[in-house]
Amino acid sequence: METLALALYSAAVWAMQPLLRRKLRRRARQEPGYGVAVEERFGRYHVPPAPEVGWLWVHAVSLGETRAAALLLERLRQRWPDLRLLLTHSTATGRTEGEKLLRPGDTQVWLPWDTPGAVRRFYAHFRPCVGVLMETEVWPQLVRGARHAGVPLLLVNARLNARSQRRAQRLAWLSGPAYRGLTGVYAQTEDDAARLRSLGAVVRGVHGNLKFDVPWHPDPWATGRAWRAQLPAERPVIVWASAREGEEALWLETLRQHPWTGPQRPLWVVVPRHPQRFNGVAALLADHGWAVWRRSALASPAAALPEAALAADVWLGDTLGEMPLYLGLAHMGLLGGSYLPLGGQNLIEAAACGCPLVLGPHTFNFAEAAEAAVRLGAAVRVADLEAALRQLQAWVADGSSRLAAEAACQTLIAQGSGAAERCAQAVSVWFRAPAGR
Question: CA 81, CA 52: separation in Å to the nearest integer?
Fold first, then answer.
């Protein structure tokens, strides 16, 4: 049964290849990165093959996973300064962020599309000695190929929410062999571990969330603080951190029905999650009569703010990699992805920057971190955006309560740290880097 199920899956994935190529061409019009090295996705590489066995292969699907991988790699390079890294991604933002992690002799390519041929060519070309999948990326042929190639395959910083568990259980004929085929899983939380075990995964440890070891970025944070100092001292600055599609329109409608009642109008800083939406969000804000200033209009963050920025109702955070700047600028914020049933974005970076957040009802992607933030007072959970506006205004009216929430942010980070070292130790059991390059 399992063999037949995998054969049917593989046939379907193989047949979808023309659709994937078309999707990549369409995405590349807005994000050129999707047009780079397309043949790598089909297991055809221009980079030289592995000169020896010894690659540490890390797969980080997108931006958040790549940043988590950076924390793990920092600890692994402390153990093996000359390790040879093979870094794979699935999204353009992940690949761009991953370029920062490369050293001479490392290689970066796309993860192969999950067909038998592409996966077989990937393993034959690079011959990794161990594979590390970050967080959630479990693909049937990728796992099967690792076993055939004799590559230990680990799922690190692993998470699985209840919704994904139910979906995987409905497809148990396909997901079961994939999860059982992993060499080892190192989960973020006990709840994640229980859900992963229910799918057959061998959970070898519960090590916490790597993202609690988020590195401090003093320069962009300080720039945000300097920008705040150029605004009227009494003007509240509120960041929409990683807003998802549909949330901006919902927020604008909520503000129309329930206008801000504070004595000083806030400066809203809207940071969309996906860069391909920057222009659309700018147009949406303008259509609603808002005075918009785009961060990309300023060539250098060190420059003084122009008059257009100081007079704007809303700033559009249309740059990548500057979230610490926006969080340093803000007094408080809203968590993107939590006001529609999308599961919420990662709130840990906001806590590291001392920016308390108001969470919507949907935080299942980071359930334990969200619960800890609420329990400690670093965040407040509300039912909808109307209640979120009331909470933001309450923080503005009572500065002491907001300052207490800022202090709780640091407590949250302190309590969650240490996962990077634990995960590095777990990977070290399976990885032995060759001497030299």
Answer: 17
